Amino acid sequence: MLDYFGDRHQEVPGWLSKNFVFLGDYVDRGRQSLEVIVFVFLMKITFPDKVFLLRGNHECKPINRVYGFQVELAERFEKEQGSNLFHMFNEAFTHMPLACLVGGIILCMHGGISPRLTSLDEINKIPKPLVDPNSNELACDLMWADPMMGLKGFRANAIRGVSVHFGEDVLHSTMAQLGVKLIVRGHQMMMNGFNFFGNQKLVTVFTAASYYPDRANRGAVLHVDDSGRMGFHVLSPHSGGGEKVFTGEHEDANRFDVGYIMSVADEKKMTGGGVRIAIDVHLNKEKRNDDHNTP
Q1: Would you call 58 a catalytic residue per the annotation?
Q2: Which one of 98, 257, 265, 290 is most buried, counting C-beta atoms within 10 A?
Q3: Are 133 and 145 in contact (CB under 8 A)?
Q4: Which listed residue (58, 110, 165, 187) is catalytic?
């Protein structure tokens, strides 16, 4: 999550004095996904010009069907009602933006950059409703891509089996081409709540403290003031320990969440040099359609 400069001198009871960007993955994160997604939707409805909700890779029906959200709704509602809610929420997810631009220089998304990301207009062209993000390579990368230390260029993401990994070289060249100074993304648990990459040109922000209570990760909120200075509000992990609360079908759903930006060597250890799922990544520069929202 990111909060940034707002109406500091116009504080009114019941009104937000800051702007907020949420980076996605509101569901599949414990037993109260429903409360989380309803709360952020209410925030967006109440403060439409103050709250910006980006779509994460878990705001997709094939993912949240097996990673917990569908199970939660089925447990808490009658069968037909739970099914209807599941489909209605997922219909709403198809209309969510995939990126936003803060102050003209900070680009935010859930996943990462893409070989298809040649201009901000390419994001604006992504068609909505977008039912299947995998049908649009740029959309898929904005929701799924990860940075990797020691990598040159882009290559297939062998750990996730979808989208790409990207190195510092293409991060810097893409940012120069887009005219942005910082990229803020989520998608990966960080033990300290945040982690920089590419000479502090990209920062991963993970707000959920105690995502794995047995590993006691911190959470973080990035704050940007009206002068452009940044700071982090770090959330301490809960005490008590225990296993991560998970209601989906995949017991090892996040076993690749190591808590830091992975390197090429880490990838080889985890995959044995192979890929988890065979995928075909086309790295040509052909333009595609896309979506981008400017707070």
Answers
A1: yes
A2: 98
A3: no
A4: 58
